[in-house]
Amino acid sequence: MKDIRSHLENKCSFLLSLRYEFFYALQSVLQVESRIHPGWKNNALAKLPSRFQVGTRKLGSSSEIWPAIADTLPGNKPELNMAEMAQLLREQDQRDFQHKILLAMIHSEDIVAALVERRTDLQAALSRLPKTKHEWLTFVGLYPYDAHAPMVGAMEYLLSSPEKFRETVLDVMDIFYQCCFAETWEQLKPQLQRSSEEKERLFRSCTFEEFARQALLRIHVDESKELIEAVRGGYKLRYGDITGCYFLPSAFNDRRYWTVLDSPAGSGVYVYFPFFDPSIVVDSQALPPEPRYAEPELDPALIFKALGDSTRYAIVSMIARQPTHSVELAKRLSVSKPTISHHVNQLREAGLISEEYRNGCVLISLRRDVLEKLSEVAIKKLFESESSVDLTTSRKKSGGLNQ
Q1: What is the pLDDT of residues 13-66, one digit of tens each?
Q2: pTM of the model
Q3: Exposure pattern of 382-397 as b/e (b: 16+ CB <10 Å)?
Q4: CATH architecture of 300-384
């Protein structure tokens, strides 16, 4: 056992890196149900311009897509800055970029190949995956299949327009980094460095199995078989297949994702454990008194569209009476969590809801002030506007899907 331990230790490194932390922070700011760093999230949302929201809507308003974007970067480059990450994403072969994101979500080479080659559609592809993958697919919002779910929308966009998808990803990344995360990263570095040093001391002082337990890694370790097993999905990894193993401290990976990437040389794999440290504090001050970006003007068309759906109207009716969290909404309406996330995203985009972190969850409430202003704004738009009338509709005459 000592020889095995020594062999594994030689492959492991503890590093401070933007590589995954940036994407987990971006995921966190887009998650309605995110429970961590609510003050930081409010500040970030106040700083982000409308172009950021437009970009995320094009990506299906999905927060789960961002860890998959991180997985498209080369496995042998654990230490990357923002410019390097953007350049690597921009230079990737389009088909390879598309393939890697799909593989990160679906975990099947054969099914991903069929999707990329358009030999099957997404719904049929997901139905072919084994039951052992259902828990993972549910976790990321792809099962049960729902055409309106944010992650399904993101995957369909990736399949139909991979180059536009990539340009949208790069634009959203640049906005998020420039407007808020560059400053956050500099503030976090001292705490992340301390966390990395503490975890490395722990790692050197006990077995890998004990370390995984104490570091809250979402894996099962069998030292006798030299085996690492994923908690979800049934994936297994042998120590001998590991070329490099990187432990990266994280303030945002509260879902405790970890990932395995193939070596560019074609032999062995690189393993990344962005371990979540709940003791790390991100600036939690209240919203700044003078936000850099003014609240956008109400859009009556967007509001009427949001209220025109029966499920969203039911949600609005409930949160008007009492602030409610998304899990309770899903339970009371007997719909899936991804479906609730989709509808809440639509209400958020219309400016109809406010969100507050309280007692360990995010409570959603209806903004009465928006509804009170709606009539005035709608009348002004309809009767007093001097701009040309927008005659664009959401349906095609051919009966195709809404865009």
Answers
A1: 999 999 999 999 999 999 877 778 988 998 999 899 999 999 998 888 888 899
A2: 0.68
A3: eeeeeeeeeeeeeeee
A4: Orthogonal Bundle (1.10)
